[in-house]
Amino acid sequence: MSETFRQLLRGLPDFPDVLPEFDPAEAPADPAELFRQWFDEALSAGVPQPNACSLATADRLGRPSARMLILKDIDGGGWHFATSRASRKGRELAANPEAALNFFWQQQGRQVRVAGGVVELSAEASAADWHARPGADGGENPDWQLYALRPREIEFWQARHDRRHIRHRYGPGSFS
Question: Which residue segments constitute the domains of the chain, with CATH numbers given?
Answer without folding.
Answer: 28-170 (2.30.110.10)
